Amino acid sequence: MKNKFLRTVVWEVQYLTPPPAVRYCKKCGRQKEFVSSGQFRVNAQRKYLDVWLIYKCSGCEATWNLTVLSRIHPKAVSRELLDKFHGNDQILAHKYAMNTDLLKRNGCKIGPYDYKITGCAAFDGPVRLHIRSNDASDVKVSAILREKLQLSRKEFEDMLSDGRIQSESEKDLTKCRLGKEILLVIS
Ligand SMILES: [Zn+2]
């Protein structure tokens, strides 16, 4: 593989705010953005442990519970972690609120959110571009490339059709989302 000999450049995509969970609000009667309250709800009364992160509708006072743990054996969770749920640990709540995979598994769509891309964008010759995100980013790869390389839609499409931007795993770069990472070759 000749790509292995190329210089690798790494870009990191980070959310600046937790992504809103878009779902139907019965009170508002339409799709609304729900945001994390930072509060957990814990049910440890019975044989199983359930934990939710409470979300609030941005349009009214309606709440919705994001399932964090469902029907877990109480012994499977450490005392330390349980204390964090009970104490509404802000770092832990933030970690769950940033997890777009978790939001999707809970049946939500992801609303728009701010993010930043760090890493060098001035390439001298062809490079292997490794774009990654700790948050399993929902952002489209095309949006990241266009923003960082300052390409118009036309310029981006031309680079794709000329093969100057290629996905190593042959993903459709007009559609695919970042997820954890992607490897590209830019020439
Ligand atoms: Zn509402």
From TrEMBL:
A Pfam family per the record: DUF1062
InterPro entries noted in UniProt: DUF1062
Domain of life: Bacteria
Protein name: DUF1062 domain-containing protein
